[in-house]
Write a structure and sequence with these properties.
Length: 406
């Protein structure tokens, strides 16, 4: 079957047209067995989209899932995997079907997609998650580890120091023969867990097409980044508004989308032409970092390939790469600090750590040029914003001089 196309039809039939062992990832987002017709309108109310999620019985529904999964397994490469999206309505049944078709030994994770909701019309707990079952075809599956930033509650020692099992089998900080605590290896952050906080598309989001149960591109990006590389083939047999295909196009993967609804196919095709994606500040920055670090500080850290740390007066982050085998702390000069204050704070926070390199990001002009009354080997880098400010000032001055001379 041709790739980078949205195909109209029943996926049970259409999947049979795909050759075996072709596909790297399948995102499988069927109707959830809600036993109702889903209906929603676009932002301007000019178009209403609908799809039926009604079945004679749970057996009929599970037969659709099973038959589709059998074909999915056939078309998957041996390194491929399936991410099956469902909710509490039928997740307990679906898991058994997945075990049957793909094998319980190939179960990898139950991902909880968690999002904030503010109201609850029913008695009971507010429902604010859906489930994504991650199964591989074999044990030899492709997997890219993604990393997230440390949470605000992680202290510096937890980030920097190496750990080992002590005589009681408990995790403890690693020490040398003199009892000094040892600093650990380079760390990229915290490996992504199976609970994902990704905002639901809000009714005003530009990305929202009006297709019922449309998933956010950010959610699909995360799945694609975990299970595929550029040039890989991604398949979505229940593609609806085409979110998976939009994500695949964005991340330079090939794709095949299938949907039984003609309107969904038309919508998916038009989305692929427009490629409107809503950015999420929460996701881009990480929920915890959002609490303490300002967007500007996070941007500065990201620019120099450092990760942020919280709750430390003298250190704002660490370079992702070590220098001379040691972590490199970074302090950003804040609004109300002089350059000397910033250096001093970083020096204090570094006492006893023997860092081979310490960096202060200078964000404001400073009169003194390291003429302070303490010795420091801190390296100073001017922020891009400051460099630009100085450049404009210099340019203005040069122009003034030229004008005076001319
Ligand atoms: C939960 S929605 C998918 C939403 C999609 N992930 C998105 O972001 O827009 C399920 C889709 O499955 C489609 N569908 C239902 N039965 C199907 C079948 N047998 N073959 C192909 N598509 C089917 C429906 O038309 C609907 O668009």
């Amino acid at each position: 079957m041709e790739t980078n196309k949205i195909v109209h039809g029943n996926c049970i039939e259409k999947l049979k047209e795909i050759n075996a062992d072709q596909v790297d990832l399948i995102y499988f987002d069927p109707p959830f067995f809600t036993q109702k017709k889903h209906s929603l309108s676009n932002r301007t109310n000019s178009k209403t989209y609908e799809f039926e999620d009604k079945y004679e019985s749970i057996d009929e529904y599970l037969l659709l899932i099973e038959n589709a999964l059998i074909q999915c397994k056939r078309v998957l490469k041996s390194t491929g995997s399936v991410f099956l999206h469902c909710d509490k309505t039928a997740s307990h049944y679906i898991r058994t079907v997945l075990d049957k078709v793909l094998g319980s030994e190939n179960f990898q994770s139950e991902i909880i997609w968690s999002y904030k909701r503010w109201s609850n019309s029913k008695k009971g707990l507010l429902n604010s998650h859906q489930i994504i079952f991650f199964y591989s075809k074999t044990v030899d599956f492709k997997f890219n580890t993604l990393y997230t930033n440390y949470s605000a509650t992680t202290n510096l020692d937890q980030i920097l120091q190496d750990r080992e099992r002590n005589e009681n089998g408990k995790s403890a900080y690693k020490k040398d023969e003199k009892g000094n605590i040892l600093l650990g290896k380079e760390k990229k952050g915290v490996p992504l867990s199976d609970v994902w906080e990704i905002p639901f598309l809000n009714p005003k989001a530009k990305e929202r097409t009006g297709y019922p149960t449309q998933k956010p591109v950010l959610l699909l990006n995360q799945i694609l980044n975990i299970a595929t590389d550029e040039g890989d083939l991604v398949l979505d047999p229940f593609c609806g508004s085409g979110t998976t295909c939009v994500s695949a196009k964005l991340l330079k993967r090939d794709f095949i989308g299938i949907d039984i609804s003609k309107e969904a196919v038309e919508l998916a095709n038009s989305r692929l032409e427009e490629m409107i994606i809503t950015e999420s500040a929460l996701l881009n920055k990480g929920a915890d970092e959002y609490i303490e670090k300002t967007e500007r500080e996070l941007a500065i850290l990201e620019e120099i390939n450092a990760f942020p740390v919280q709750r430390n007066l003298g250190i704002d982050g660490f370079m992702k790469e070590h220098y001379n085998g040691m972590p490199v702390p970074v302090k950003i000069q804040s609004e109300n600090e002089t350059l000397e204050d910033a250096i001093e704070k970083l020096e204090k926070a570094s006492i006893g750590k023997n860092y081979a390199l310490k960096i202060v990001i200078q964000t404001k002009e400073s009169k003194t040029n390291r003429l302070f009354d303490f010795h420091s080997d801190v390296e100073i880098i001017k922020s891009l914003e400051l460099q630009t400010k100085e450049l404009t000032k210099r340019t203005h001055k040069n122009k003034d001089t030229l004008q005076r001379l001319g």
